[in-house]
Specification:
The structure is a homotrimer. Chain A is an alpha+beta fold. Chain A is built from twelve helices and 17 strands. The N and C termini of chain A lie close together (about 10 Å). Chains A, B, C: Its EC number is 1.14.13.-.
Amino acid sequence: MKDTVSTWAYGTSLPAELYVSEEVFRDDLDWLLKSQWFLTGHISQIPNAGDFFLYAIGNESVIVTRNKEGEVKAFHNACRHRGSRVCLENEGYKRLFTCPYHSWSYDLDGQLRAAASMPEGFDKSANGLLPINVGVFEGLIFVNFAAEMDAPDFTTFTQRFAPLMHGQGLAQTKVAARKTYPTNANWKLVVDNFFECYHCSTAHPSYCQVHDKMKLLAFGAVDRSDDPEMADHRKWLAEWEAEAEAKGYPTGMFHDDATSAYFQAANRLPIAKGALTESMDGQPIAPLMGDLAEFDGGQTGCVFSPLSTVLVNNDHAVIFLFIPKDTQETTVEAIWLVAPDAEEGTDYDPQTLMHLWDTTLKEDKTITENNQLGVASRGYRPGVLSDREVWIAEFGKWYLEQRGLI
Amino acid sequence: MKDTVSTWAYGTSLPAELYVSEEVFRDDLDWLLKSQWFLTGHISQIPNAGDFFLYAIGNESVIVTRNKEGEVKAFHNACRHRGSRVCLENEGYKRLFTCPYHSWSYDLDGQLRAAASMPEGFDKSANGLLPINVGVFEGLIFVNFAAEMDAPDFTTFTQRFAPLMHGQGLAQTKVAARKTYPTNANWKLVVDNFFECYHCSTAHPSYCQVHDKMKLLAFGAVDRSDDPEMADHRKWLAEWEAEAEAKGYPTGMFHDDATSAYFQAANRLPIAKGALTESMDGQPIAPLMGDLAEFDGGQTGCVFSPLSTVLVNNDHAVIFLFIPKDTQETTVEAIWLVAPDAEEGTDYDPQTLMHLWDTTLKEDKTITENNQLGVASRGYRPGVLSDREVWIAEFGKWYLEQRGLI
Amino acid sequence: MKDTVSTWAYGTSLPAELYVSEEVFRDDLDWLLKSQWFLTGHISQIPNAGDFFLYAIGNESVIVTRNKEGEVKAFHNACRHRGSRVCLENEGYKRLFTCPYHSWSYDLDGQLRAAASMPEGFDKSANGLLPINVGVFEGLIFVNFAAEMDAPDFTTFTQRFAPLMHGQGLAQTKVAARKTYPTNANWKLVVDNFFECYHCSTAHPSYCQVHDKMKLLAFGAVDRSDDPEMADHRKWLAEWEAEAEAKGYPTGMFHDDATSAYFQAANRLPIAKGALTESMDGQPIAPLMGDLAEFDGGQTGCVFSPLSTVLVNNDHAVIFLFIPKDTQETTVEAIWLVAPDAEEGTDYDPQTLMHLWDTTLKEDKTITENNQLGVASRGYRPGVLSDREVWIAEFGKWYLEQRGLI
């Protein structure tokens, strides 16, 4: 593998083997599960003790639940007896997680409560569901599969996002809609696609209609902020920022480079001139969220890690989960969130809410799958990245360094 | 592999790799095919010379037929010319097995009878269908894939079952129904599931309604025959045995431990108090079989090998075939047998006949597939077996020893 | 692999591993793509500049098109940017091939014409679509995947076929029909099947009804031309040849042995006594092609390579493409060609045109798939080839030698 990678140059796409080799995928997944925090869902999915949902990645199934103390907990969905899936429903409520095979029962802290006919000396306390590290930030539930003492620090992972999330009430939202987009492509191609907007004008007409053109040109691109052509855009941004700040709304941005442990980024930017939210016509599609008294048309984008992103608008938010399943198979899941008291049918229409990103994610599925097909053929050569694909260059370098391949 | 297994302890389930590795499966299959006798069907399926059925396991297809001398024969279903499947129908009658590719024709002894345009010196007698070892016991047709001289001795394989089969007429039965249950699980998980009734109360309500509860508690369990709580049960069993023996019906049991070449077991036990046969209400569902003059409610269970089991009731029998197909794919097939002169519609109803085990095998398919899913995930750890899973502990040890892994 | 092959003897089918091993398939494909010319289609599919069709083999997708100078060109269908499939339609017309991902645009010579926002120093001329070697013979478009300088000489590849194609107008034909037959078998079994007519009497009743019986007996068979039984047949052939030559029509034949680089063969022979073309009743099913003034009932068969064959009758031709997809997966494609001015419905009926070979290829799919199933089982042994399978013996030897396995 190192031989393959030795020919790689910064600023080009990765060697084909990294997108098609089953061995590389297995090692990727092992590294990802242990080193990264994976966004799984929102606390509104489990408001009460015993509420749960399942999260699946690779061959893993995770029970995410809330215990009697109100803490969010996550466990491997595998019985400590002979390994059966313990919980078969995708979501619901349980007082105990009782295995459908032999009725071993685990409480909401994963402790084994009942296991009949066990031999003398059997220690229930040593046979609880194996825990998975959990962190909650602004209502977002993250998991990490490292051994507990090796878990990356969750505060370090989230702290830079806090100022940009201030006042927007993400923690108080509720799920309004969700949809999955099974994609026949390696997870790194899904990430590459999300990290540049160079393809937007070709592939995403609706998205381009909604967002400010100059902003999209600057997304993930070489810094052109000194470019005289950008003067008007800079002026507009500065004015918008001043207005937002006057309202007490957050502004700002940061973006990691390849030396980061997580490859994080965030910013708060306006959708487009005159747009109040990320909808087809820029008009609100749900009630204001959080502490916001009025629309400012801003959107907080948080890339917690290459596989976990959230976009927060004034009236709704969208969670994006990129879930590696197999070498050439990634599940993309989107979850739309609205204010907690918004009523479906009255305050928002799920189809309208979903329209833009549903359209865009379907387009992304197609282009990413065609990317995979080409990468798997002999005609593929790692290609030179454009000035609008800086984040892909950095992501590639970050990936190779984290994996110890360069 | 030995490294993986070195952490295994008796009394726990096996390491995950043994259930998910393709290499382990290939080696398992090679070992099984050569060392074990596989139950394939019943002689009533091929009453006359030229009658045949196909048996499939892994990538193998076997022609099971009867020659003019009335002997049961089995052959690899692969032409000695260029390898085509010779017989494409699953069952039927042939005077000659003629390959659909080039019409090479084989007689019922597998001898090549016709092969046109062959070069001088071609020896027909050296180009018969490759034989597979066959044994018939009580009408049950077994095959083994070892070279003829390496075939395990069939008499040794069957002799201990004879006394328990006495008088029940299994050899004279006929097939009344059959059904397959394709199961996405490794063959060893299918066997594990069949070797314990610890899961019955959770997963098999119908089965538990039919069978005596104390008997199920004792199935594959630590010996508790001295336990005072079992006194009533022992008394009932003793009375039932005395009655059965008075009628001239067989009783008794044996069970191999991990040192056995075949891991065999058999017993004859009553279904439940007041039950005449293994039906939902304990009432007969077909005419008495064999020499039986009256019902005694007994059931002879014969585990010829972990993959080949037969249950013989007074009025019907059920054959269970567990057929490894791929690493995580096993076909379970059930064949229901009744007395030879029983008439469908008049003497038995196939749906009623099948009801209990069809229900139970569908449940088994579900729990075994959920077991496989969990075993394939990182949350699986070999778990401590209960006092009611002694046969799983023994089976695991037997498997590891036979495979040379411990 | 060499160990496996060391047991192989000339005149027998190949060891199973060569038909079932994924590693062997990968190496086969690598060798085939570089050393062989693959027939992909006919120039009538791309009459004008910008017309194109896609050709797929293994994981490869090839754009076959015509440039402004009228030259046929072929390119890897993978963008030089990040590898996406550039062209998604199977056939059509393009002025530029514009990638659906980021709109990189390539002209009909594969030159990169547009790529926005590329960094300084980016060299468009070094980022054209990767070319694939192309050769055109009698309207047939062949491709080869070697580096340009390593491409096998196309003139050498085709020159011996020219005399047998003379006057038949294949270059001027047009596509009348096409159909694919996805076949679950290794490509070598598909070739084996096509290289002998020993199976015809068993498997192809329609084909045998059409063709002269003695001719089929001689196809790919041991030379029996001195056999007194063949005297009548020889006399008929000699008379037919004299008539054909009197008309100025070509006759003759050649066949390579295992020392050939391509394993080529060709001949021109009569269909059958009284038959004018290869139709069910021997009667014409389309207008005469090329310079032919009248029917002579001849058929030119050209095996350009084991995977690329053409049959040219007086009134229509059939192209056969055998396309390796995966270890046990080969796509067989047939393309029927007729005179350029023949009108569908008036001059020919596609169903009638296709009938014989559609019937025959469906039969071939079945027998080849059953061959693969048998070869993959333990009952397979390389078998002795008949006197009518000389070309299979030679093909096997040729394959093993070309692959460096003997």
